[in-house]
Batch of 4 targets.
Target 1
Amino acid sequence: MAVRLRLTRVGKKKQPTYRIVAADQRSPRDGRFIEIIGTYNPRAEPSAIKVNNTAAVKWLSQGAQPSERVRKLLELSGAWAAHTTGADAPEVFQVPEPEAAPEPTSEPVSAVASGSDA
């Protein structure tokens, strides 16, 4: 059985969210899978990625082939480097939440636009 690490689509119409899964190569994209390794939300800013690096390295060491996109996500999480070089990777990788935007000023637009250039 050839195992691939790939994305399966979940979420509502026009609002995709993906699971990173280990699945048989012959099964359909959203079909049966062996194990969920993480999640990926490309619509968040920045993209939300959560990967269980321990499980990913386990599957890679057993010969699972990642898809192109999953390989890039594993490179971001450090699991790919841990697999190829034997270095340590964090057990679970998660992209930190973006910082809150600064509060807008309460001054009227006309006062800011006119300034005191005179």
Target 2
Amino acid sequence: MVASAGVTTPGSSADDYWRPPGAGDPSGAPNPPGAPSPATAPSGAPNAPGAPLGEPGPTPTSPVGYTGPPPTTPPPADWHPPLYLQPPPPRQLPGQDQAALDLAEQRAQHLTWIVGAVAAVILLALSCAFCLRLVR
């Protein structure tokens, strides 16, 4: 274990890395020693480390947080997308023979039962053969 793994600076938290520059600690704790507070920073100083010198950061009059989407204007009430082609009406489906459908469904059900019975007989025979080998 590394000796400095669990050590933190007094007045800082693990979330400080993810906070924007100058945000400070939301719980009201003072900034770490040696760090300038946002209120005492010079007005022409850059806000982010690595920012070009001489360029000021964002103005303090910018809104804080998400202000929502921009306003939209609804279209007129009688507006519709242009219609270039009128589709034909749907065609009539052919009729169904219910008696033939019932007969085909019964045949399919019988085939399913036969296949299941054959599989069960094969599994029973294999189980019996396996048990006889264990007994001997």
Target 3
Amino acid sequence: MLEQFVMFVTSFAPLLQEGAASSPAIPPQAAAALAVGLAAFGAGYSQRGIGAAAVGAVAEDDSLFGRGLILTVLPETLVILALVTLFVAG
């Protein structure tokens, strides 16, 4: 799936830049919104596996709840940092 995304971006990026040689392809606010969206997608994708593993670990041993919670929340910090980027650019 990652390879398909990279192929899409590399084939689509030159088309955006052909019309405007001196201006950016997208405005800064749109770039910040794209960063937040991609960060949220990446966090959700990573939490899919982490959440399943954390639930399985807690089902076997209740003392692993704290570690599972921390590992589940950790990818969300990427979204928080992306939101900071949105407010700095806006």
Target 4
Amino acid sequence: MQTNYTIIPTSRSGHYLFYQKHLFYKVKPKNPVTGITTWRCRRYHNENVKCKAFLKANDEIVLSLTNEHEKHDEVGQFETVMLSAKQEIKEKISTVRVPVKMLF
């Protein structure tokens, strides 16, 4: 099992976890005793898919991945880069009060 994952900011001040070409959203916050955070596939609420994949991870590695993903599209690396860039631009625009031309 591959243990590397990436945390990606979302537009609503949340985070996605990118692991094995899939995005997960946080279901349960980090347990203060065990240090484990529980994540669910972002396609869980999709009417056509209802993916039931769960992931448990600590600050460094993925500990477990339960259930296989339902048949839905994988997430490309470009989508994760775009999510990160979009959030970075939103933060930059909201913190600086100058014309947009001066930001870039």
